[in-house]
Amino acid sequence: MGANTHFDLEEVTVRQANQALQEAEAGSFSIANPKGAHALACGLDAPLEVTIDGHVGYYCAGMNKEADVRVDGNAGTGLAENMMSGRVHVTGNASQSAAATAHGGLLVIDGDASARCGISLKGADIVVKGNVGHMSAFMAQTGTLVVLGNAGDALGDSIYEARLYVRGEVASLGADCIEKDMGPEHHEQLRKLLDAAGCEGVETSEFRRYGSARKLYNFNVDNVDAY
Amino acid sequence: MSNDNWGLRESYTFDRNTIHEIQRAANTGIYRIRGWGAKRPLPTFDDLVFLGASASRYPLEGYRESCNTAVTLGTRYAKKPIELKIPITIAGMSFGSLSANAKEALGRGASEVGTSTTTGDGGMTPEERGHSTQLVYQYLPSRYGMNPDDLRKADAIEVVVGQGAKPGGGGMLLGQKITERVAEMRNLPEGIDQRSACRHPDWTGPDDLEIKIQELREITAWEKPIYVKVGAARPFYDTTLAVKAGADVVVVDGMQGGTAATQDVFIEHVGIPTLAAVREAVRALQELDMHRKVQLVIAGGIRSGADVAKALAMGADAVSIGTAALIAIGDNDPEYEEDYRKIGSAAGYYEDFQAGNDPAGITTQDPELAKRLDPVKGGQRLANYLRVLTLEAQTLARANGKSDVRNLEPEDMAALTVEAAAMAGVPLAGTGWIPGQNG
Hints:
The complex is a heterodimer of chains A (about 230) and B (about 450).
Chain A: E1 5-8, H1 14-23, E2 27-32, E3 48-53, E4 68-72, E5 87-90, E6 106-109, E7 122-128, E8 142-147, E9 163-166, E10 177-180, H2 184-196, E11 208-212
Parallel strand pairs in A: 1-2, 2-3, 3-4, 4-5, 5-6, 6-7, 7-8, 8-9
Antiparallel strand pairs in A: 9-11, 10-11
Chain B: H1 16-28, E1 33-36, E2 48-50, E3 71-73, E4 82-84, E5 88-90, H2 100-112, E6 117-118, H3 126-131, E7 135-139, H4 148-153, E8 156-160, E9 172-173, H5 180-186, E10 194-195, H6 206-219, E11 226-231, H7 235-244, E12 249-253, E13 259-263, H8 264-269, H9 274-287, E14 295-299, H10 305-313, E15 318-321, H11 323-329, H12 337-342, H13 367-370, H14 375-399, E16 413-415, H15 418-424
Parallel strand pairs in B: 5-15, 6-7, 7-8, 8-11, 11-12, 12-14, 14-15
Antiparallel strand pairs in B: 1-13, 2-16, 3-4, 9-10
Helix pairs in contact in B: 2-14, 7-9, 10-14, 11-14
């Protein structure tokens, strides 16, 4: 497969498009008429550039490695779930569980992300330019969630070592999640992520940082009210 | 533990174990967490017997005539189904919960007799992949260690919805077992109590599961069988929904199924016995006209070739063993009696898999203890045990005139209790009565 290969999902199946993408070693690709198709551009394993023109269904770019996937539209549940590396960019909104369990790479959502954004995050970075829904970063282990808008209820519930930066309001923090100081290394990390996501004119000083209080790391009967 | 004063009467309601648990709870304020599976008396396959041949049934010669034990799992959609020589597989158990040597032993033993083993919560280790000719990769709610490379290295994928020891519960691995290697595989700090989620992070019901299975197939080129494993809760509906979601294989795990670490109250009081689950799962497949098209694997307390044969006779295509496999490789070995005593247990009773100080070196991450298990010898013992189970199941099949263990059928059995007759859907011995079906 060479450069600028085009798939029209009115003419080929998701399986055919995915197979071609999964077997490609390089190149740029465009996909037309996704019409909410599920599992599109999932399991990619090479430094491809993939552009999807329209809305996608569940698990778009799931388990992505190395590829740069851009969705000009909205994305359904589980966008970039378990991503290992690469970059996924959605110009619209994303449904629940965006970047769930993702290990690496960068997910950028220009609009809002629904509930459980970054759930069980395992190392990836997420930048949401709008708001995130409730239970975002639930049990997030490591990695970073940046929210330029507001966060819903129970942000970071049962969080491990992931870092959360929120510019707007946080409806409530989940169990064992607390606000933490912004040190120089946090400003530096946040600046890099904002730049990588193309957030011009946004200052790191506008953000607050949240993370684990680490009080629930080992079961202790004194914390029974928190369980 | 016994006393020789016959004037003392132990309370049935408050027996010594119950009294001990009340005292323990009062002293610590924490519920009991342990490994193993349900220990209290439950209806089991022992409550069924085979009828054998008679004037109306013609047996096969035990040492001459062949009796097939091979089974293929994943014939519905997968391009590369799993071909097993025996209908007994090794259930999912994690590296982390088990030592690397124990995982290697399981892989060696299963491979030697031509069956599969299964990863667990914590990902795939090179030891396990290297020593397992057929490896099922569990896809769990926590997704610890989950990555697409290992997914593609697997021979089948098992989406774990639930587990017999704890349907509706997540797992835990206590801090003492979160060593550097385990922590790295799970992206967690060392030494913390690791909780495994009870719900999948990116799907919430059977309609979502159907799409999740589609994604897994897309990522693995529609080659690998997709199993869906459920704890025995509502097996008729769970099996129906798994089939609807596109499973190639349904695994139903009864409440005797083991765990590495779960609350005792969960192990003993949630889920239904394996015996009761099989019939309901088979009925679901039959009503969908998918029996034998979607294969059924039964797990939870399988110990002998008789258990294997009875599960197959009720309609399962294969069984899966966990606890029995650990015992086969050396768990609860009397050789370590002194060491079991030192930690307040005894060979034959040891269940503290969560503690990490297993004298047999199996449920531990302590390198010194882990050395006690020779993976080659452990694998050999497991292979021996699997051969015995297979020979026993064949013996019973031949006695009932069957040239394939899967030709065993409910009509070959009778129940010894009213409860078993109702649960298994076979007549009470000496009668034609199946409670709920014909009176």
